[in-house]
Here is the input.
Amino acid sequence: MDRSAATVVLESPERRAGRRQGMRAIGAFAASALGAWAGLSSTVEAAPADVGLDVDPRSALLKLVQRVSFGVTAEELSLAQQLGFQGYLERHLDPQSIDDAATDALLAPLTTLTMTAPQLYAGNAADPDNFGNRVVDEQVRSVFIRAVFSKRQLLERMVEFWTDHLNVPLDDGDLRLLKPVDQRDVIRANAMRMFPALLRASAYSPAMLNYLNNDRSVAGAINENYAREIMELHALSPAGGYTHDDIVALARALTGWGWIGYDPSTPSTFPVAGTFFFDETQHDTDPKTFLGVSMPAGRGIEDGEQALSILSSRPACAKFIATKLARRFLSDAPPPGAVAAAATVFAQTGGDIRAVLRSLLTPANLYDAPARVKRPFHYIVSALRLLATQIGDWGDMLSAADTMGNEPFGWHPPNGYPDSSTYWSGLVLPRWNFAADLTSGLFTNVQTDFAALFGSATTAAALAGRINTAIFAGAMPPAQLALLTSYLSADPSSPDRRAEAIGLALSFPVFQTY
Here is the structure.
């Protein structure tokens, strides 16, 4: 990109501090004028009624783009308008049909993304002081790159969803080398396919086996941790109709499931380090009864395989997954009718994730779907998708996400980051700070092109209208549009004033939601 076209300006620390302070004051002014931002959660969480009427797909098209992407852009909205509601949805339901070569080129230098587990262990053995940090850095950068630049936006949203659902943090030790393979071969590979295959791949994943201690579960000394979490968090929910006896039976069925560690004194482990291994000598071969199904004695890995199939086929599993997907894409309190329909589709298709999404993402369901508060990562990425033309260093973005409590792979409990507007409606000041830093040039490795956004507009009203069109697809509430126009009217020709107006727009409640 021609750097002269960007509005990144080299400023003195004093001037930057002054502009940032001014933007924070603007944010406080906006909150005062628009009401307490924290009160937004009570509005966005209102449960929509079940929608039974026919809805013109054009009236729900903008919401569809908002829900399937990490942020509406002019290019994405134009594509949706060209293809129509169903055509646009079907395009995103088939991500492999979308050319994403430009994103692949951005990811190409991150060579650890394509390494096998043995290759990662070999790299770490050769450079134990630095390699692990490099693996973590490349994993996190890849998440930002894909969310901001990928044309396969629904795939990225689903990868985020399943990353939370089957949470494994990118911790120190073995997880630094095991989680990248889990993310690629379990989550990403199955994010838009069949849920039973996803659940099975996770159960075989050395990262999950390590994280939830199933690699320590052996006949006569079971560890119930993974068995409990797979039923409570991965497949059935706490209301899924299982007992402690079922947890014990599942733990017994999964005994002997482990992985091969790296042992520098045993060369035979090098080519297979970090891969799944079933130790039949540690498997409980006695008969078992799991969720009312009898498993005969004398079997091996078949016990675990059958248990996973039983979990995926339970009606409680269909309802649980349908509810979580409906919450992510429709509402914090999704309509019972939409959930029931999606659960029926899940059961009828054997857990086809794309079919469930197709059932949920209808014009009728989206028409009355209330706004949801963007999680911090979503908020950061949605701003970058609109304004960033080039990003040379993702460190500032990770720092911002960390400050807001939503850095990739940073949630340590097994339940994944919360999916609740109430949870994310606090910590307003860091969001305003991010908007101020992004638009005032404090992120020196992020190039932006505000001149292109404003075009030939010169008056305060025209400038505010351009912001409304570019950032809000023309849907900015009148009160917020008036506030923006008022702020610009003080000096509409000032580049600083224009940049600050964009920062103010990114601080508005309407941009904090989707």
